[in-house]
Automatic annotation (TrEMBL):
Molecular function as annotated in GO: acyltransferase activity, transferring groups other than amino-acyl groups
N-acetyltransferase domain location: 22-206
Coiled-coil residues: none
Protein known as: N-acetyltransferase domain-containing protein
Protein family membership: Belongs to the acetyltransferase family. RimJ subfamily.
InterPro entries: Acyl_CoA_acyltransferase, GNAT_dom, N-acetyltransferase
Alphabetic keyword roster: Acyltransferase, Transferase
Classification of source organism: Eukaryota, Fungi, Dikarya, Ascomycota, Pezizomycotina
Source organism of this protein record: Gomphillus americanus
Pfam families per record: Acetyltransf_3
Amino acid sequence: MFPMDQSKSTTSTPILKFRDGIAVREFHEDDVSDSVQCLNEPEVRTFLRNRIPSPYTESDFKWWIDRCADQTNWIPTGPFEPDPQDSTIHRLPSHYAIVKDDRLIGAIGLEMKSDVYCRTGELGYWIARPQWGKGIMGSVAPAFVKWAFATFGILYRIEAEIFSGNDASRAVLKKSGMKFEGRHEGSIWKNGQILDGDFWGIVRTEKDDAQ
């Protein structure tokens, strides 16, 4: 894995590169067909929240890529500043495509929280069904967590919620350095089933570059 210079992010420059043509980069407009195909795979949707429309359409992807391109949704980079509204502060997106040979096969990102939780980001990701079992997310997620802490000084904590039974994600989060923090029993209603929500988290350490 080779982290790229985050100060020079463009739509064509990956923020992370791995072996076998795997990379993490910003979303492109021509990712639309791959995104629609992947997000309409029933198995992929099993552990995703329902805010992702079903069926997933080209219009849904257009809305998503516009949201990702909107710089008001980007996160300030560099050391933490209590007032990040300064227009001179450099910002980067927090949601990215996972690609193989520049074809979209998944996504990973952070959704920053607000109010007193404004230094916490929630990690989310998915990978196309044909790529399951290849260790891709097990490589991408830990590298992305490290990159996020090094890039976004405002970020003090990263957390994730997974549905009970999602053993693959449990392994990914462990590999990313996260700790299991507790279970909300019966908190999820998905596909006609009541599931538990398992919560994982990690906080910034002295080894992280920013802050």
